Amino acid sequence: MISKNQIKLVRQLEQKKYRQREGLFVAEGPKVVGDLLVHGFRAHLLFATDDWTCPPGCAPGAAAVAVSADELRRLSFLQHPQQVLAVFPIPGEQVAAVPSGGGDEPLLLALDGVQDPGNLGTIIRIADWFGIDTLLCSRDTADAWNPKVVQATMGSIARVHLVYCDLVDVLSATPLPVYGTLLDGDDLYREPLTAGGIVVMGNEGNGISPAVRQTISRRLLIPSYHRGDDAAESLNVAIATAVVCAEFRRRSAAIG
Fold it and tell me: In terms of Cα–Cα distance, which of 33, 24, 53, 13 is closest to 155?
């Protein structure tokens, strides 16, 4: 049986101010909740129907509160709730460690003002797919713990570290090459790419901000192959991220 206070708490967590106040976020569905539990997130509250099973290797933290399908719908932010909803503590803020520039360096993504929750969630999922475990986010990037973002990651938020920071400071200090996707950049498929580096993706409408643009050492363009003058003006930022990451990994695999 769920209480009115529990329903109120969960529903409030749709808003950033309450997530910040309580230090909690909501995840839904067997896939997302299961991945978080398996990767060490311990639930503050967990509501599940009788057909949900905790995946092998998970440590729930909180005992599951049995709920009916109707009760789960009262809690859920989804149109079609699935078996389980959990409330987790938001991880503590991480410091953006600047890679030293020596040895095998990682490939990182940096997001400059990405606003759409669906785009952010998809980019986190893309980073996970391409083995990128750190995502640097400007302070004005969407909140990664928004329920829409968490859901769009399909569990990848359990495996990718989100670091909110002053991008200009971090990018100015790194010895790694800083790549940026810009309309006046050079053809992604013709330019030399390093295995490690930081790839900056910009805001959906305005692209990379002028201040961050000053830190970019290598400018890239995803070329359009449309014939004619009426081509799309640009790619969705999540799609562009996937294209760029795929090319970096393809080159790295070819070299290796």
Answer: 33
The token pair that represents 85 in the structure block:
């909803």
Tens-digit pLDDT profile for residues 173-231: 999 999 999 989 999 999 999 989 999 999 999 999 999 999 999 999 999 887 767 66
CA end-to-end span of the chain: 56
Are 110 and 202 contacting, i.e. CB atoms less than 8 angstroms apart?
no
Two structure tokens written together for 133: 């475990």
Give the tokens for residue 245.
């990451």
Go through 103-125 and write b for each residue having 16 or more CB atoms within 10 A of its CB, e for each that does not. eebebbbbbbbbebbebbbbbbb
30 closest CA partner among 82, 66, 89:
82
Which residues, in sequence order, are CB contacts of 235 under 8 Å at separation 6+?
A: 222, 243
Question: Side chain identity at 97, as an amino acid letter?
Answer: A
Quick check: helix, strand or coil at residue 219? strand
For residue 206, what are the β-bridge partners?
none
